[in-house]
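Both lines are quoted verbatim for reference:

——
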Amino acid sequence: MAPPLLTLQDITLTFGTAPLLAGAGIAVSTGDRVCLVGRNGSGKSTLLKVAAGLVQADAGRRFAQPGATIQYLPQEPDFSGFVTTLAYVEAGLGDAAAADHYRASYLLEQLGLTGTEDPSQLSGGEARRTALARVLAPEPDILLLDEPTNHLDLPGIEWLESELAGMRSGIVLISHDRRLLERMSKTTVWLDRGVTRVLDQGFAHFEAWRDQVLEQEETERHKMGRKIVMEEDWLRYGVTARRKRNQKRLGDLHALRKKHREQKGAVGKVRLEAAEADLSGRLVVVAEGIGKTYGDKTVVRDFSTRIIRGDRVGIVGQNGAGKTTLLNMLTGKLAPDSGEVKIGTNLSEVSLDQRRDSLDPTQTLSQALTGGAGDTVTVGGVNRHVVSYMKDFLFGPEQANTPVGVLSGGERGRLTLARAFATPSNLMVLDEPTNDLDLETLELLQERLADYSGTVLLVSHDRDFLDRVVTSVIATEGNGNWVEYAGGYTDMLAQRGPVRSASAATPGKPKPSPQPAKAASRKMTFKDKHALETLPQRIAGLEADIAKWNTVLADGTLYTRQPAKFAEATGSLEAAQTALAAAEEQWLALEMLREELEA
């Protein structure tokens, strides 16, 4: 085994009064693939800066082999003093700049840059790609990467995986991208409560190992007779329970995807006139032949889809493909240039603001969740104390009066999630929700979305998250063409095969799947036609009944005052809900049959 090129031993570092690192260590040799994991705020980025020699530890030892080259990718690169992106990249080459000029240009080209860009005018994605080119160009002995996939699109992430796999450098990687960690890592270093633990296996084995460590630790604490603080117990040991629940929910998701495929079939043409009356019930969005062009560029071309209540739809594609444009058209925020979009009535939408612009830095965490009124939060029609609700999102009780302005990026992300899920809604629109979220918070978000009874529209570059959440994926095929695939991101890759050219793709529509012969031979009877005409009125009546019984049951004293009436209202509500579900299913089946026959 080769001797380490870089070693950290017993690193201690204190910010303020609490120690951030209290005996942390790491060792990296040529060709190593190490992932550094831990909760947001645990000190991962700080430890990486110590390894890079940018932060001096209070105690401990840092040793780098003489002559070993080390490159560090910061989360926020400093471009000051550089006129072009190429000049910034070449400055990282040192004395080898002349010989490696073409590698610098090659990397920038591979990352979609020309080298002539003004660094002060770069977008977040362009800045991240420029910084990546700088650290990759000299092919260093040690490569320290802090969230390298932030702001990268899917093609960029996949290119980075390929580039890193071909390098001889020892790599230490911090990332929230589970798929990247699973594919790249051979060793896992877990930073927890200031101390590092090492697993000589990749990230794919980490969670099961972490659960064993935490369970053993909890058992030992109890044996020693020490009292475990309940809040700390929930924040730390609750991850095991959440992961086990999420494993079960992955199975539920596969069943939901199967139902989704059977329910929707091929998209085809949609009869908007028939759907319009029932959009408030079963159908959430119906789009037919929509298109959008900016100047000479068509970003959406002749796309059709039908989104049914309960669907979880992911939208994927490279930066600039038009994901947000498509999302805005489907939610009615942007009118298409061609085609038509029908939005269901009685929709209550909540959007996740990943920029956190809606957060007031002067408010306390409690005020941000309650709106500054009282100490309760209403979630799903149930009043909960704000401290209890905070714990669901990994905040401790002592943080209730913490100003929002001092929260870390990850904590602000969790607060944004908490606010979103506390807002009454039946349509959730998430644009890159996984940014700045640690792995435990990603599990939490997955769990919350699994419990969410409404419809989800999701734009994301996180492949693993898409696989764990969505029932279908809308993917760009180039030249403004978008195709919807049943299942998650991996399912989409399996269905599409090699990316088709624009001429080979049918704009906005998937390959029609073979239909059973008996479906083509079936005809609509008079009874079917009559049901299709009368069901919307019956559905509206059932919805009114449900609203009436919900109003009756909203009286919290009804059970004690009039138990008989409470029982009647409960039974009637359940019967109306069952009847509504059956009526909606019947209407949807008949509507799909009519479309199929007319096609």
Notes: The two ends are 67 Å apart (CA to CA). Confidence is low (pLDDT under 50) at residues 226-232, 264-280, 500-521.
